[in-house]
Here is the input.
Amino acid sequence: MNRPKPDPSTLILRAAWIMACAFSPNRVVAVCAYPWAVLSILPGTIRRGLYLDDTRTGMVLLYRSRLLLDLLLITPLILVVAIAYPTLALPTAITVLGVPGTLIAHLLAFGIAITGIIPLMPGSGASTLPWGKETPTGQRWEIAGLAQLPGTRLTAIQLAHQVLGTVPPPGAVIVATAGTQALQDRYVRAGFTAGPQRRVHRVIGATPTDSSCPSRAGER
Here is the structure.
């Protein structure tokens, strides 16, 4: 099996659109979710963990699980927004729209942001971190963002199998959080071990109990 190569960071916008469409019920919500999708896959993409299939319609993220590094990678972006908003964006909005118009714009922006983030959030009861006390020690790799552009051939599933089978070294611990109980059950059938709050893990090299895919495209 050929080892897939991570895609360059320049494809992050394409990958974010695939994710936004896959996790959203319609195109309008997908547009609202798009900025959040970019932000969510930014650390993994910078760390060369983004994989797209040849048709650029399916994607998956697989990279070393390092929470502190992920936070450090997005901190500069957060600082830029935190500085630019009160010093540039807000004064400009008040000048152009006036105070009432600025308030309305903020309410609209808030509504759009909430509409967009909800489809990308883990389901109720799911852990925000993919590992816990039950996770074995070892080199941890996180798999996330398995998504397929709606209306296209299911290539993301095959891509995920190929990446899982060739990228992590033997003994690596693959971790993930299932968005739903049904999804956690599919992870288990694919050889993962279930944990609390719908966390799952799998040690590379251990014999899986089934060859089923851990997830369907468009699910976390």
Notes: The beta strands are 50-52, 58-64, 140-148, 173-177, 193-194, 199-203. The chain has a mean pLDDT of 87. The longest helix spans residues 67-117.
